[in-house]
Structures are given as structure tokens and as C-alpha cells.
Amino acid sequence: MGSVTELAEAVDGKDPVAALTAVAALRRLLEELEAVHVTSARLQGSSWETIAAALGVKRQTAHRKHAHRIVDGGR
């Protein structure tokens, strides 16, 4: 399982184990996508407050989750 289309097709309800596997794979992809964009936002100067608001979480939550990934430029 790799593409979004394959994952979406697996979540059709016919095989609940396959659907759960697809949901877990989608969750991993979304986490990776979030991390990429948070890093990009920080490197471009966005504050943790702005990032947190965009994600719908508190500043401390966003910082705790992502700050360790940002090596350069993440104030």
C-alpha cells in the first residue's frame, strides 16, 4: 500500500482489517506532511503561535511535537 488512491480504495468497509491498515498508513503520511510543513513554516519565520493556530492546537503542543526536528532557523 502506497498511493493515496490505493489507501482510499482499501477503506471501503468490506475488509475492516485492510481498512484499519489503510487508516494507519494515511495517519503516518499525514504526520509526515505536517512535519514537513511545520519545518518549512518555522524556517520561513512563522511563530509557534501561528503554526499552532493553523493546526488547531496550543502553541506548547505544536512546539513539543515538532521543535526537535528543526535544526537550523527554528527559533
Question: How would you describe the overall organization of this protein?
Answer:
This protein is mainly alpha-helical. It has helices at residues 4-10, 16-43, 48-55, 59-66. α1 (4-10) packs antiparallel against α2 (16-43) and α3 (48-55) crosses α4. It starts with a helix and ends in a 9-residue tail after the last helix. The relative contact order is 0.12. It comes from Streptosporangium subroseum.
What series of H and E elements makes up the topology?
Answer: HHHH
Mean pLDDT reading: 86
The largest β sheet comes out as: none
Count of discrete structural domains: 1
What layout of secondary structure does this protein have?
Layout: H1 4-10, H2 16-43, H3 48-55, H4 59-66
Helix pairs in contact: 1-2, 3-4
Organism: Streptosporangium subroseum
Protein name: Homeodomain-like domain-containing protein
Please provide a brief summary of the model.
Helices cover 68% and strands 0% of the residues. The protein has 75 residues and is an all-alpha fold.
Identify the notable features of this structure and list them briefly.
75 residues, 68% helix
